[in-house]
Each structure stands twice: as C-alpha cells, then as structure tokens.
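Quick question: what would this complex look like in 3D?
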Amino acid sequence: MPWEKGEPSPGLVDFLGSHPSLGKGTVCVPGCGTGHDARVWAAAGFETHGYDIAPSAIRLACEKTRAAGLNATFTLADFLSSEPPARFDYFFEHTLFCAIQPVQRDDYCRALLRWLKPGGVYLAVNYLIPDEDGPPFGTTREELIGRFSPDFELIEDWVPRSYPNRTGLERMFWWQSRGA
Ligand SMILES: C[S@@+](CC[C@H](N)C(=O)[O-])C[C@H]1O[C@@H](n2cnc3c(N)ncnc32)[C@H](O)[C@@H]1O
C-alpha cells in the first residue's frame, strides 16, 4: 500500500493545530485507510467516524485506535453508494478522490452532499498530479473549483506541508456547504 505513510496528513495536523477554536462536531472520514487522520480528529476532541470498503483497513484502524487509547468508530461501507447513518458536521477527504475511478467523481459529489449536513465543512487534501493512468488519478485546481463551487463556498485553499514524496503536489481546500 504505497499510500500508507504510517502517520496522518501533515496538512491536517497543521490545520487542526492552527484552528483550535473550530467548533466541535461530528466528522466523517471516508476512505479512512488505517485511520491515521481519523485519530488526529479524535485526539482534537471531535466525534469521529471512519469508513472504508476494505475490511483489512477497518480492522487495522480499530486496532490502532484502541492501542492509542482514542475513541473513534470505523465501519465497512462504500461511501459512494451507501446512505449515511447520520449527516455530519465535517467531512475530511485525503486521497479518496484520487483513488476512485474518474467516472465516479459525479457520484462522489452527490455522496458528499448526502453525508454532510447543510452548512457543514468539507476539508480536503487533494493530490494535484497529472496522472490519468491511476490510481491515483490526477486532478487540477480548476476541476475541483468547477465541481464543488456550485454547492460550496471556498473559504480558503493553500499548499500544505506534505509527506516528503508529495511535497508541492498537494493542495488543501476548506469548503463550507451553501445549504441552509
Ligand atoms: C489511497 S487510500 C487512502 C487512505 C487514507 N485516506 C490515507 O490517506 O491514509 C484510499 C482508501 O479509500 C478506500 N476506498 C476506495 N473507494 C472507497 C469507497 N467507495 N468507499 C469507501 N472507501 C473507499 C480504499 O479502500 C483505501 O483505503
């Protein structure tokens, strides 16, 4: 699993560290892998729920979270086709958008609107690579702005601190749902 870095997204760690007064709430981490990012949200005081289609990822995420003495739930689910158990205040994306087939990106946008509360926050660490023969499949800032702007206000986007082999290739987007 080349995406398994053994640690959370540096960009997420920095974001939560620099926004200590962010309102607490429920967080959905789809495509959570072994749960590194979910544990950062949980450690920051958010009620955190990870989802993945890989049973091994869910098992490892549960084991690592228990070993860390943290609280988060991990559930086997296909986020693209499932109905959410509840709608979330926050939705955190990290290398799921680039992992799915590009033809599934419309499904991704529809699922995001189903899983997130109206007015909720969509925080994404996107992988801006040119690759068309993934996974990972590349995207551009222009594509992301075009896809999400109709339903989300862009609060801020920036180049985050990254893992060494992704430096300069990631971009974070902080969106807020326009839903009432
Ligand atoms: C590139 S990995 C990233 C894992 C994790 N976000 C990380 O960065 O460490 C993509 C993950 O998304 C999961 N995944 C792919 N399609 C999914 C879907 N439709 N629903 C839920 N999880 C999915 C995969 O099983 C895998 O664990």
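Answer marked as accepted. The two ends are 40 Å apart (CA to CA).
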